[in-house]
Design goal:
This is Cupin 2 conserved barrel domain protein. The protein has 119 residues and is mainly beta. Helix content is 7%, strand content 45%. The protein has one domain: Jelly Rolls, CATH 2.60.120.
């Protein structure tokens, strides 16, 4: 089997304050491409959608553009930028650093539900 999708043709788009998520679904893999605009912060833009105080998704990510700061529940922090790969476990907040949009690719299994409004 071989399956090919073009990055310009996502299967779904989920809009939220100061950003959006494009979802690509393939056999055994869901990939998210998030665009976070300057001023985006998870606790302000997605908390009401998620219904939790902190993000409870596990992220396996790659930053293509911009910068993102991630703060874990225990207070530890890291900043990621273009070319950085990262893993962030459940229990974190994140926000855009600077005045450039952050484009992040996420290869986590939870992307099929991330930023999806609860019914």
């Amino acid at each position: 089997m071989i399956e090919v999708k073009h990055i310009d043709k996502p299967d779904e788009r989920r809009d939220f304050p100061n950003g959006h998520l494009e979802v690509f679904t393939m056999t055994g893999l869901t990939v998210g491409r998030a665009t976070f605009e300057p001023g985006w912060r998870w606790s302000e833009s997605l908390r009401s959608i998620a219904g939790t105080e902190l993000c409870q998704f596990h992220h396996n990510g790659y930053i293509a553009q911009g910068r993102l700061r991630i703060r874990m529940e225990d207070g530890s922090e890291a900043e990621v930028g273009p070319g950085d790969m990262f893993v962030a476990t459940p229990g974190h907040d994140a926000w855009v650093v600077g005045d450039e949009p952050c484009i992040a690719y996420d290869f986590s299994s939870g992307m099929d539900e991330y930023a999806k409004a609860k019914d």
